[in-house]
Request: fold
Amino acid sequence: MDLSPVLISLKTSVISISFTFFLGIWAARAVIALKSERAKAILDGVLTLPLVLPPTVAGFFLLYIFGVKRPIGKLLLAVFSYKIVFTWQATVLAAVVISFPLMYRSARGAFELVDENVLNAARTLGIPERKVFWKILMPMAMPGVLSGGVLAFARGLGEFGATAMIAGNIAGKTRTLPLAIYSEVAAGDMEGAGKYVIIIVAISLLIVAGMNVAATGKKKFS
Reply:
């Protein structure tokens, strides 16, 4: 059994969540801080769009932006002699784009549930805004933020459509677990596909179970 799809998927998911987690938190805080409700609604729609678009459409946009015949793709190729399409880095890019809305919306919902009076009380005591965010808001919103991180990680692990569009299905290079399952089914090897399915289901269950145990322990000792 070829284990490269397992390693590629785990590496992709770990690196993508490293970006998505902090980008989602930053974006959620930035949208909440906007004064204009119209600007807030527009920006929220743009940031949430990858969640409702078919992944292949999101992959098409990524391919259109980063293709070697497109401005950004040409720039990367000319300046750095590097192309992102059909590389392992493209799997990370696809996972970040597709999983980002889950992290963003979870973080925003968690932040909005925090009592604003608590934050205002801290501000009246002269606590700097940065400390208010990291010392008060983040700890109070942490369960929702971590849940968003788990969802985003799992979404990145299961990403298929956008990855196939911009990264391709190259064995040992860009073939993630979902692509491996598709390839085995297409080849008529249902037993091989079943093994990959068991692995991805087991990983997902372990992640969710670990988060549930951590959340239970936090409630018990809080």
Q: What stands out?
A: Residues 3-54+85-219 form a domain with the MetI-like fold fold (CATH 1.10.3720.10).
